[in-house]
Amino acid sequence: MEEIQKILARNLKAIREKEKLSLEKVSELSGVSKAMIGQIERGDSSPTITTIWKIANGLKVSFTTLINVPQPDAKVVLRSEIQVLSEDNGRYKVFPIFPFQENKRFEIYSVEIEPEGNLNSVGHRDGGEEFITVFDGEVIITVNDCNYNLKNGDSIRFKADRPHTYYNSGDRLTRLSMTIYYPD
Amino acid sequence: MEEIQKILARNLKAIREKEKLSLEKVSELSGVSKAMIGQIERGDSSPTITTIWKIANGLKVSFTTLINVPQPDAKVVLRSEIQVLSEDNGRYKVFPIFPFQENKRFEIYSVEIEPEGNLNSVGHRDGGEEFITVFDGEVIITVNDCNYNLKNGDSIRFKADRPHTYYNSGDRLTRLSMTIYYPD
DNA sequence: TCTATTTGTATGCTATAATGTATAAAAAGG
DNA sequence: CCTTTTTATACATTATAGCATACAAATAGA
Hints:
The structure is a homodimer. In chain A, 26% of the residues lie in helices and 33% in strands. Chain A is α+β, with helices and mostly antiparallel strands. Chain A has two domains: 3-67, lambda repressor-like DNA-binding domains (434 Repressor (Amino-terminal Domain), Orthogonal Bundle); 79-181, Sandwich (Jelly Rolls), CATH 2.60.120.10. The structure holds a DNA duplex. Chains A, B: Pfam families: Cupin_2, HTH_3.
């Protein structure tokens, strides 16, 4: 029995218990036999993707809910705790706030750019996407040679797996929130 | 043949072509037979979770990469386009920037709170989690009766499926970035 | 153009997923 | 406590996943 089967078994059983459903009920909801639901929960069988799909749909949960592992409560990150990363002679500063987590697939930064400060990025991992909101100042973001002029309060999302740049075109500090999503 | 099989077929074939791998090579990397890889790509078979796990690991991609559907490039959201939601007699304003997307599982807002403005939340959907960073002013966030005093540049993440409140304890506008994650 | 190599597909066989049914065990109700 | 109902598991059968092998088709190189 593979580890992934155990994970699936635990998650399915946990969901079923939490919702207070019998094997019979899950069977009705999903269109998968009661005996098969039981086999899966005991880790006695490695179900096909079609079967899992039916179960996920029947229980109205996602695949990842069935194949991932759980985590804990509130956590504060003070600015003083953050190890800042500088580029462009200190004119571009990145504050890594919430690191990447495998089961969430995103990480969060805040960014500060001094006037005329800039950063060129060759692009991140495949399929990555950035979500940026301007909280102070202004910025010109270039993606695939397209310039996007953003003012205070504006936002942009773009595919981050290609060359892109950030440039503070104003005369005061620019501050951005940055959420980077990775599909894998 | 189920729809999920077609999706899987398309994604696997796309990855293989992109990486310029032969069926033989994917077979070596994953430990799944060449014939089976071919069957999966043609949608001729509904593989078990163990088989998909092996393929995902062999190709170093996630499950979601194999079972999800692709999207387009950069998109700008100007502040003027955002429909603001107000609470507490206008002292608490929410700007929905990037709406929830099923395949990413998070949504992004910015929030503005006037001095003494506050909001009580009974909690969102099960397992939801909030990631907040202060970009201006200060805020007291309460989660499970615990108060967290955050200053400019500080951040917090907390389980959002329980009662929580936001209160501007300062004497000027507070601005927050808010990323809400939902497991399903 | 021809030959050798690589690649994808077809086929038959084995292993196992998935089911329906029977039954033992657990839970609910009087 | 006893009886009925519900629930989970065992078992036999059917369908199909997964594999090894052969071969046709496509590609690469001389």
